[in-house]
Amino acid sequence: MKVMLFARARELIGIERLEFEESMTVGELRALLERRFPKVAGLLKKSAIAVDNEFAEDALQIPAGAEVALLPPVSGG
Amino acid sequence: MKVMLFARARELIGIERLEFEESMTVGELRALLERRFPKVAGLLKKSAIAVDNEFAEDALQIPAGAEVALLPPVSGG
Amino acid sequence: MIRLTRDVIDYHALTEKVRRGDCGAVVLFLGTVRDLTGERVTVALDYEAYPAMAEKKMAEIESDTRTRWPVGEIILEHRLGRLEIGDVSVAVAVSCPHRAQAFEACRHAIDRLKELVPIWKKENWADGSTEWVHPGA
Amino acid sequence: MIRLTRDVIDYHALTEKVRRGDCGAVVLFLGTVRDLTGERVTVALDYEAYPAMAEKKMAEIESDTRTRWPVGEIILEHRLGRLEIGDVSVAVAVSCPHRAQAFEACRHAIDRLKELVPIWKKENWADGSTEWVHPGA
Fold it and tell me: Phi and psi dihedrals of C3, rounded to 5?
């Protein structure tokens, strides 16, 4: 799977897109990102995760090849 | 005083402006109009009376020289 | 700002006039002539006003709306005379710092205009007959 | 109809597109860039989107709004990139038979857009610093 990063999360991590080989749930991905990037842990807790352009719950098993996105609280409009 | 007529009231009475010499209250004017023009009595009961561009209660004594208007229910917009 | 006019309402110009750097929200309402009222087919409307009082009441609505919400700019404009299907009969443009204010202020202004301003419309039905519209009468 | 664009939003064209003979009411909402946020002075905003999902969510909001109100036409358009003070960042234009419907439908659409659509803005403050806006974070 690939994970797209946006806005402050992208700036703090300094990367636009992450790639992971392992299979995992949305909740496991959250935990992995928090461990890997502790400085965004606070923002992560407030962020949504989208899988293939849909908001996803922590229990969802991420399909192989899915496009995942880390969505900090939105501020459009 | 002069009394301006509008919309259906003007069409039914067939006159744009009435003139009265006597001094009277708004309520007395209503009664006078109902007697004089029985075919608009129903519309009159639903209409407002304005004195010098302000909605007026029946108790108001109409000042000499006032501009009075008979306002059927409005439908602008 | 308020205005009665017999010309086409240039709502684009009105909207530009209310835009301000200190207001993040603009709401524009347009009333337009519908082709149907219930089952009956309209071909045109004639709008008539008691002009002096209509302008006074519109100015009071502007002032009342400014008292209730932090309005940057507000413009109410109503057209008079013969209007055809789709024509804009009334426009209310409002700017405020935030969107809830702009929606509420615009809604309030058009609701009060329809309730208080001495303007009347006459339906010109497709069968050739005409009828003044007097709600509740 | 929904659209993301990097160009100036032509809200006049959008409003013309939603006008219909069977709709007596049009409501247009414009979000514009404010010069102040609290006490801080903004000079520009940068808008970024997750485009595929933003378009999907905007299309869902259009469809949800059409389900709830008798919408004639509805257009949601959001601008991306660098915007300066007074620029229009978002426009929502709605036509309905009656005005209460048009106000409610337009308000619903912009409220949902601000809640659900993955778009973010970055403040460019007058002191040269920048800050992504993430409400509640």
Answer: -160, 140
Beta carbons of C42 and C33 less than 8 angstroms apart: yes
Contact at 8 Å (CB) between C85 and C96?
no
For chain C, which domains are there? 2-133 (3.90.1170.40)
Does residue B70 fall inside a structural domain? no
Name the residue type at position A73: P
- Model ipTM? 0.95
Q: B59 to chain C, minimum CA–CA distance in Å? A: 21
How many domains are there within chain B?
A: 1
Going by beta carbons, is chain C in contact with chain D, meaning 3 or more pairs sit under 8 Å apart?
A: yes
Is the entire prediction scored with pTM above 0.80?
yes
Is the Cβ–Cβ distance between B6 and B72 less than 8 Å? yes
- Interchain proximity B76–C135, CB inside 8 Å: no
Least confident segment among A9-13, C24-28, C38-42, D15-19: C38-42
Check A71 against D118: CB less than 8 A apart: yes
Identity of the residue in C78, C115, C120 whose CB atom sits nearest the CB atom of B7: C120
CA closest to D92 among chain A residues: A77
Q: Within a domain: residue A68?
A: no
Give the DSSP per-residue string, C29-87. EEEE--SEETTEEEEEEEEEE-HHHHHHHHHHHHHHHHHHS--SEEEEEEE-EEEETT-
Across the interface, whether the CB atoms of D48 and A42 are under 8 A apart is answered: no
Give the CA distances from residue D3 to residues A74, D24, D74, in Å, rounded to whole numbers and listed in that order: 18, 25, 12
B44 within a domain of the structure (yes/no): yes
d(CA B23, CA B58): 14
CATH number at residue B43: 3.10.20.30
Note down the domain range covering B49: 2-63
For residue A13, tell me if it sits in a domain.
Answer: yes
**Which chains, if any, share at least 3 CB pairs under 8 A with chain A?**
D
8 Å CB contact of B73 and C134:
yes
Asked whether C58 and C75 are in contact (CB, 8 A), the reply is no
Total residue count of chain B as it appears in this document: 77
**Residue listed under structure tokens 């469809």:** D63
Cβ partners under 8 Å of residue B54, min gap 6: C53, C56
Q: State the helix-helix crossing angle for D99-116 and C99-116, rounded to 10 degrees.
A: 180
Helices marked H in chain A: 7-13, 26-36, 41-46
Residue D36 binned pLDDT confidence (cut-offs 50, 70, 90):
confident
